[in-house]
Amino acid sequence: MQVIFTRAGLACGMRASSPLLLGMAPFGLVTGVVSQQQGLSLAEALLMSALVFAGSAQLLALELWADPVPIGAVVLAAFAVNLRLAPMGPALAPWLDRLRGWRLWGTLATLVDHSFALAIAEQRRGGRDAAYLLGVGVLLWAAWLVLVGAGHVLGDVVRLPPGHPLFFPATAAFLSMLVPLWRGARHDLWPWVLAGVVALAAHRLGLPAPVPLLAGAFAGAALGAWLGGRVGAVER
Q: Would the pLDDT of 233 be above 60?
């Protein structure tokens, strides 16, 4: 497949990702509020968001924040949460393998779940403009900084108790990304279901973060690999 990288593709990615900003808004605001309540300055919160750019990892790290900071626990938790990014590179290889320099590193630096989901859907439609992926990531990155900054500024006014409804839209946004990834095969659903059930069960048992996340991820991945092997054997 011949891959291109154009301004039109960049703009198309930005347009495609703009509806995601609605679901991303409460996620970013909450991250800003929590960072302020944990004692980070506005500059520190923005620097963290710009360099890390991973809302789930940032929130998990902030939940573990203390004085002194348990660096080992924070690093392990962030590593566990971000393990899901590892398979994204091979899945996007048809585009990434043909990029070099700032185009490759800029794309990887802004790669998140949202941009991955949209890019995979675009690839399946036959898209060959790799700038689409960077366009999605750049808009989401810029919006993330604005939202975290706004949440930090409002942190003195807003005090959110655990379980507040404002926390849910972020989860809803992640769930909605599964829709374009599903290819219609019934067996594709079972790994998702198992991952959710195992993660919830581990959480109900009171296991500390990131154990529920890891348990669900590994359970779903194992079932997906097993089902994929069975389907491949049947097709052969």
A: no
Calpha distance 219→200 (Å, rounded): 12
| Pair (55, 27) in one structural domain | yes
Contact 144, 28 (CB under 8 A): yes
Rounded CA-CA distance 35/62 in Å is 7
Statement to judge: residues 73 and 148 lie in one domain: yes
225 shares its domain with 157: no
Task: Quote the domain boundaries for residue 156.
Answer: 7-165
Q: Examine residue 2 and state whether it is found in any structural domain, yes or no.
A: no
Q: Are residue 18 and residue 86 in the same domain, yes or no?
A: yes
In a domain, 88, yes or no: yes
Per-residue model confidence as pLDDT tens digits over 163-204: 666 656 556 656 665 666 666 677 778 888 998 899 899 989
- Total of domains in the chain: 2
128 belongs to a structural domain: yes
- What's the per-residue H, E or C state across the chain? CCCECCHHHHHHHHHHHCCHHHHHHHHHHHHHHHHHHCCCCHHHHHHHHHHHCCHHHHHHHHHCCCCCCCHHHHHHHHHHHHHHHCCHHHHCHHHHCCCCHHHHHHHHHCCCHHHHHHHHHHHHCCCCECHHHHHHHHHHHHHHHHHHHHHHHHHHCCCCCCCCHHHHHHHHHHHHCHHHHCCCCHHHHHHHHHHHHHHHHHHHCCCCCCHHHHHHHHHHHHHHHHHHHHHHHHHC
